[in-house]
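step=encode ok
step=design start
structure_in=
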């Protein structure tokens, strides 16, 4: 039996790449949800709400939505607005441990399945010139917390405690668990 096509409610090239890496048939339909944190909303509630809204906003029999944010001392660091904002975020993260919170939602047969992952990432201490050179690569500009662990940003990381794929934006083990909950079994190959 052919696996059903998964609709990815995201424009993230990294999420698409991870699903394609596993050979999961998919189509991409960006959700266009406005990402604004509500007053008194915790970082966890915020990420979980956005992932749900994204998955529910796109039509399909099997829709996956996800959201990722970086949290340091209860402050949410989303995508930087410009290079100066990226540099400021990276300065705030260096030498510290922060949390990367990723929530995934699968809508299947009008049922909503959701799971959330929290991974601790510790940055090493580097000088401002190193951070400025990283920002100049352009890589930080479309990433929560202004870094991509799968690219040049790996040079900033001292250690990770948890799911590497969650830090990239899509905890694959949780996606596979949600698919299983929905009655869709993963099979190797296409």
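sequence_out=
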């Amino acid at each position: 039996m052919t696996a059903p096509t998964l609709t990815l409610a995201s424009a993230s090239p990294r999420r698409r790449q991870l699903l394609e890496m596993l050979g999961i048939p998919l189509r991409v339909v960006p959700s266009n949800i406005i990402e604004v944190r509500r007053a008194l909303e915790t970082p966890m509630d915020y990420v979980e709400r956005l992932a749900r809204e994204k998955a529910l906003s796109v039509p399909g029999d099997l829709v996956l939505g996800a959201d990722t944010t970086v949290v340091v001392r209860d402050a949410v660091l989303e995508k930087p607005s410009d290079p100066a904002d990226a540099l400021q975020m990276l300065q705030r993260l260096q030498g510290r441990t922060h949390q990367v919170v990723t929530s995934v939602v699968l809508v299947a047969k009008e049922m909503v399945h959701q799971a959330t992952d929290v991974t601790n990432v510790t940055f090493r201490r580097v000088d401002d010139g190193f951070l400025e050179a990283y920002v100049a690569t352009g890589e930080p500009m479309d990433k929560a917390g202004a870094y991509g662990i799968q690219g040049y940003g790996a040079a900033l990381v001292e250690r990770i405690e948890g799911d590497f794929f969650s830090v990239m934006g899509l905890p694959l083990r949780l996606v596979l668990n949600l698919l299983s909950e929905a009655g869709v079994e993963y099979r190797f190959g296409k």
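step=design ok
step=annotate ok -> The helical segments are 13-21, 43-56, 83-93, 128-136, 164-168, 172-181.
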